[in-house]
């Protein structure tokens, strides 16, 4: 009988191997913008579920989000992650109930 740590480690190994050998799953959301394509919606939902279970993430195409908005979000996220930790710690954090009580709401 495997212990819990071994089982978790085996899952990580299998997922890591799978990810190294296959492409990241791509989900086409165009059926959600097309009236009457219930079968396409079902397939997209199944692919999202499968990709989330097996990989933990997936690529999305035909989502309707303008490229300029995606580029701006990427630029801002890069700016944030390039910011020194001391500066990041000064940013207000809204507690939504999922943060540890040890995490302060803000640091001044």
Automatic annotation (TrEMBL):
Keywords: Iron, Metal-binding, Oxidoreductase. Residues 24-91 form the Non-haem dioxygenase N-terminal domain. GO terms for molecular function: metal ion binding; oxidoreductase activity. InterPro entries: DIOX_N (IPR026992), IPNS-like_sf (IPR027443). PANTHER family: FLAVONOL SYNTHASE_FLAVANONE 3-HYDROXYLASE-LIKE, OXIDOREDUCTASE, 2OG-FE II OXYGENASE FAMILY PROTEIN. This is Non-haem dioxygenase N-terminal domain-containing protein.
